[in-house]
Each structure stands twice: as C-alpha cells, then as structure tokens.
Amino acid sequence: MFQFKSIQEILEFAITKEQAARKLYAHLAESLTDPMVRKLFSDLALEEVDHRQQLELELMKLGRVVPESNPFKGACVTECTLSDEIPPAIGYAEALVLAMQKEKAAFRLYVEMVGAAENLECRDVLLVLAEEEVRHMLRFEQAYNFLMNRT
Questions:
Q1: Would you give the end-to-end CA distance of the chain in angstroms?
Q2: Which of 1, 58, 81, 133 has the most CB atoms around it within 10 Å of its CB?
Q3: Residues 31-39: what's their mean pLDDT?
C-alpha cells in the first residue's frame, strides 16, 4: 500500500482522486436521461470540482504549488478510463451502483491509509477525506433506493 509521509502528498493524491471522480460523474450526467439521476451526477461533478479547489487551497497554504502533472500516475489512484469502465448503454440503476462502488472503494482506501499514516496530522486529514467519500456513497444509496421504490 502507498504510504504518505506528508500532508502535501495526501493532498496531491486526493486532488487526483477528485479529478477522476469529476470526470466520471460528468460523463454519467451527460450519458443518462433520467432527470433525477442526471442532476445527482451533475451536482456531484460540481462538488468534486469544489473539493479539488479546497484541497488545492490547502496545498497552497502549505506554501506548495499545485502540480500540473499527476505525481501519483501508476500508483493506487483509480483513474477513470470511461471506455473500459462504463458500458455504452448503462442504465440508471447500474450507474448508481457503479458510483456507490467507486465511493466505497475510495472510503476503504482512505481508511486503510489511516492505519498506515506516520503521524497524527496525516491521519486526521485522511479521516476527513474518508468522511467525504462516505457522504457521497450515502447520497448514491439514497438515490438508488428512491429509484428502485419509484419503479
């Protein structure tokens, strides 16, 4: 497992994950026709942009420059390759399940990293990131349950 030695590394990693999530959610928002599901993905894509900007601000507060390239390419970042991960005719329920799985995986990753963190400050940052992922997962679960009860 990748182990972070600084808050800077955690923030750069999280920025990369936010970019990948935004890409996925924006693609799903464009691909789906159900207005409720489309709005959910569109809203979450915008939230991911906001989260990325917040993380970049925290990085700048540390006196660091936001890297233009991904320093974690090939590491344990799950970049979204849309053609491989999303079937061309994905349904609403399948899109929500995919999103739930991605958020759950991100949550688990951050929780595992908490145990591997070298200092308390890094653990605290990772816990905040894990909490954000679980909030997204719950939103997708609520939308999925609503969609299933609606049909």
A1: 42
A2: 133
A3: 87
